[in-house]
Specification:
The complex is a heterodimer.
Chain A lengths: L5 H19 L3 H26 L8 H18 L3 H23 L4 H21 L1 H4 L5 E2 L4 E2 L2 E2 L3 H23 L2 H11 L1 H6 L4 H27 L1 E2 L1 H5 L1 H14 L4 H17 L7 H15 L4 H13 L1
Helix pairs in contact in A: 1-7, 2-7, 2-10, 2-12, 2-13, 3-4, 3-5, 3-10, 4-10, 7-10, 8-10, 12-13
Chain B lengths: L2 E12 L2 E12 L3 E4 L7 H8 L7 E6 L2 E2 L5 H6 L2 E3 L12 H8 L8 H5 L3 H20 L15 H13 L5 E5 L7 H16 L3 E5 L3 H7 L2 E2 L1
Parallel strand pairs in B: 3-8, 3-9, 6-7, 7-8
Antiparallel strand pairs in B: 1-2, 1-4, 4-5
Helix pairs in contact in B: 3-5, 3-6, 5-6
Classes of the chains: A mainly alpha, B alpha/beta.
């Protein structure tokens, strides 16, 4: 059973879930919820590469989600660039911004890095709110749906398939990074920066690289969120709470595991939907459940459950 | 024998404490050179200076004639200098073989784009690194731990794992900081034999050790 690596298992499970969900749950509501899981799953995977693998915290990753989202809003509306190219443009801008801010802030460590990235997130959200002539201000803007091969992509089902496909690709690429020399170097940096440095790992370069990659993941997620929703606001994309939500998805799922990021995302997206039965106490219960998860399963939901299963098997 | 590493009048102090004062030494190629002294004498500080972790306030450090003061540790690794640590610096969340594969990092040259898509050259490189790491783990006697998580390995094995990782860079000189500390008699004998074998391959060994018997048996020169 050696061929059943986490990578193959995760991708196979993901393909099955994406393929079968529309068969089992034939309602646009469920497909919308799954689309959200796929979109934020993508962002969470990127953030996990940065946090779980390299051990670098970002409290402002929604800033890149915002850049990706507004790229597909602004570029077609104001610059006449079609939606699909706008996704690439957004990813390019996010990569460039990550490159520019990454150089200085990745020299910071721990809390200082967290505060610097927090500042970046606030900055993007502020910019999107204040530049109302471009972004529509706090009320947001509508996002024109792109045309692919003469068809305007607008139905819930179409976006379900696109986001599901992109998540599968994003997962495969993340596993590729994890199993490469870059992945090993990042995990080495996480465990002992000094040792990694002395065996020849260029710490600054590796951190920079993963920061840019994770920014592109977040940006793509932002673009897909905007295109599938058709409307964006600064709060729903680049807001501070969005950053916290991404962080929760990664930590709750389990740091350093790609499959966990997707499951963590599923928990964070699904819980509020399930908890609507508590009406006005929904947020209270949500907070309580998350606190309990972290207290009882500090390594993350997935690693803890896997360990239990393994423990029982031996 | 040509000089591989030369240290001239190196001094460093932290706050008011002079950790290393005016140290000079010259290490010829291919020897086992040991540094002895009581705890707190500044031996590890000297190692940290040589390996680029500290920048001395005075003096020069030359590796094969080139000044290396202020050079980053990763660049020194690329120039053939490698080290282990007195307080183990193992990548605990990685397996033994992955620890050693990180040591192959400077020999891995595939581009990030190729890695994103796991192109055939990346897969070849991974296989080559894995093969080299397996060979080194066998060399240091850790073949039974190849796929073990480092966090689950005993102390003595981790000491040798650090040596294997340092050797993975293909160093010209290896700095061993108390490789036998905390080891029992059998483990110490194993370490001694390992150091001999490393020296026999032509790698220069710079050694800090408190076990005087070991030092006397193994060293070509002692400071």
């Amino acid at each position: 059973m050696k061929f059943l690596t986490p990578r193959i298992l995760t991708v196979a499970l993901l393909v099955i879930v994406v393929a079968l969900t529309p068969v089992v749950l034939q309602s646009n509501y469920y497909l919308r919820v799954m689309t959200l899981i796929y979109v934020f799953g993508l962002a969470a995977i990127g953030l996990n590469l940065l946090m779980g693998f390299a051990g670098q915290v970002s409290l402002g990753h929604a800033g890149f989600v915002g850049i990706g989202a507004y790229a597909v809003g602004i570029a077609p509306t104001h610059l006449g660039i079609p939606g699909l190219y706008a996704i690439v443009l957004g990813a390019g801008v996010s990569a460039a911004v990550a490159a520019i801010i990454g150089k200085p802030i990745l020299k910071l460590r721990g809390h200082y890095l967290a505060v610097a990235t927090l500042g970046f997130g606030f900055l993007v959200a502020l910019l999107l709110t204040n530049e109302a002539s471009w972004t529509g201000g706090p009320d947001g803007m509508s996002v024109p749906r792109p045309v692919i091969f003469g068809t305007r992509i607008r139905t819930v089902e179409q976006w379900y398939w696109i986001t599901g496909g992109v998540l599968i690709l994003g997962t495969i690429i993340a596993y590729n990074i994890a199993s490469s020399s870059t992945g090993r170097a990042l995990r080495a940096i996480h465990d002992s920066e000094i040792a990694a440095h002395t065996v020849g790992v260029d710490i600054a370069k590796q951190k920079f690289k993963v920061f840019v990659i994770s920014a592109v993941y977040a940006s793509l997620a932002g673009s897909l969120l905007a295109l599938s929703n058709g409307h964006i606001t600064p709060d729903s994309t680049a807001g501070f709470l969005r950053s916290v939500e991404l962080l929760t998805m990664v930590v709750l799922g389990g740091l350093g595991s790609i499959a966990s990021s997707i499951l963590g995302t599923a928990v964070v997206v699904l819980l509020p939907q399930v908890l609507t039965v508590f009406h006005e106490y929904e947020h209270l219960v949500l907070g309580l459940v998350m606190m309990l998860c972290i207290i009882l399963m500090p390594a993350g939901v997935v690693p803890t459950i896997l360990r239990r299963i393994k423990g029982r098997a031996t | 024998m040509s000089t591989l590493l030369e240290i001239k009048n190196v001094s460093i102090s932290f706050g008011g404490v002079q950790a290393v004062r005016d140290v000079s030494l010259s290490i010829p190629e291919g020897v086992v050179f040991s540094i002895i002294g009581p705890n707190g004498a500044g031996k590890t500080t000297l190692f940290n200076i040589i390996s680029g972790l500290y920048v001395p306030q005075a003096g020069a450090v030359k590796l094969r004639g080139a000044d290396i003061v202020g050079k980053r540790p990763d660049l020194l690794a690329r120039n053939g200098l490698s080290r282990t640590f007195q307080n183990l610096q193992i990548f605990t969340q990685m397996s033994a073989i992955e620890n050693v594969m990180v040591g192959r990092h400077i020999h891995e040259r595939t581009s990030t784009v190729a890695q994103l898509f796991s192109l055939p050259n990346v897969l070849r490189e991974n296989r080559a690194s894995r093969a080299a790491a397996t060979k080194l783990l066998t060399y240091v006697g850790l073949e039974k731990y190849i796929d073990s998580m480092a966090s689950a390995m005993p102390y003595g094995a981790l000491k040798r794992l650090e040596i294997a990782r340092a050797l993975a860079t293909d160093p010209k000189i290896i700095l061993l900081d108390e490789p036998a500390a905390g080891c029992n008699a059998t483990e110490t004998a194993d370490v001694e034999q390992l150091i001999r074998r490393i020296a026999d391959t032509g790698v220069t060994v710079l050694l800090i050790e408190h076990d005087m018997k070991l030092i006397m048996r193994i060293s070509d020169r002692i400071l």
